[in-house]
Amino acid sequence: MNRIDNGDSKRSDDVTGAPWPSVLHYWRTIPAEVFDDETKTEVIAFVRGTTSTIPEWQRAISGDAAAAIGMVMHCKAPTSIGIKVDFPMTVLLSYAFDDPGAALMLSNKLRQMPLEARLRTKLATSWQVANLLSSLRRPADPSERE
To answer: Which domain holds residue 112?
Structure first.
């Protein structure tokens, strides 16, 4: 089993001494069907409350699902999970609630993560189902989306 180096809420940011927010590990601990409106709002507010000077990140945190998908699409499977994995996956999670492409990417990436096999399968499958359900709810004709 590979190491998860920021799963402990007592772990702190070396710069501020503050613990990592628990919202950063929701993507790797909570199945899609368990998210309620309050938890979804927490994730989205956390992502929207962050800042960056990197244009791709700026687009992703300000409402561009394609940018969030693009940030993780070509990333190699990590050997451990830390802030460099948790943060982009949390940004992706914030879109997976309503965007079928983001839910599918989250499912695919979860299958590559160094998580316990049973948890990894449960989480990835939950987001694959969420992708299918979201796709069924979305009108095929873009003009019908308004």
So the answer is: 22-135
